[in-house]
């Protein structure tokens, strides 16, 4: 048990160190000039590209084409969408999609790693061109950003849940069982909204503590150390962290009710509000990848590398 906790902590510390590097590319692979530093993301996959008319490109899209790079922000603590492999490379189905988008635009991908809040602000400041970081659709995001069409790699119903220490798993069978508990969630995430709306809102005494953290890795470390009772996250990421915990964590099977938030259409990419030219091209590319099953294929490969079982 202690060995399992130690392995988790070592892995997560490496991710936190990577996230602490600001203004730098996410991997030493980026130091290779003249070569595609992220070619490994789609290595071994066969795919076609959609026809794009970029002659009327405006705004950020025009800048991307002129400079020859697509700068993407991500918080790589969200397997299988984005995570760090044992050799320190950024991987994941969304990073594979980002590489595909760059290739379709005829430019080179540059990945900037940062905490989740950073991925929301970076497009507005011009630090990056677009963000791929496990975003779900939210009304405030649709109002403040340009969001892409959705993409998902699984036919399984997609949900959001909470994980707990294995020894406590039997104490939770419904959301009300988390009232009065200490819960960790990533700041500005869907899970923050779900905990506030569906647990804290039902707490008559205000005894439930929701602590917000910058990265999911901090939340997982909190659960491993006994700092909190539960961590709220999406079920695919929950599967990954539980699988890597060697019996330390457990899935509760308790799911948040998503029906109250309207249609849920997978993850979306995010760009600065008004960058419709960029998002139109990205939507064409994502739709092509969805229709041809590419994203589902990349998602399966990322799940396997992340150690997430079906």
Describe the structure concisely for a colleague:
This protein has 310 residues and is α/β, with parallel strands linked by helices.
Can you describe this structure?
This protein has 310 residues and is of the alpha/beta class. Helices cover 36% and strands 19% of the residues. The chain has 10 helices and 12 strands. The model is unreliable at 1-7 and 20-33 (pLDDT under 50).
Layout: helices, strands, pairs:
Layout: H1 2-19, H2 59-67, E1 69-74, E2 83-84, E3 90-91, H3 93-105, E4 108-113, H4 116-125, E5 130-136, H5 139-144, E6 145-147, E7 160-165, E8 182-186, H6 190-198, E9 209-213, H7 216-224, E10 230-234, H8 235-244, E11 249-255, E12 267-272, H9 276-291, H10 294-306
Label the structural class: alpha/beta
**Helical residues, percent:** 25-40%
Largest sheet: 5 strands, mixed
Order of helices and strands: HHEEEHEHEHEEEHEHEHEEHH
What attributes does this structure have?
single chain, 310 residues, five-stranded mixed beta sheet
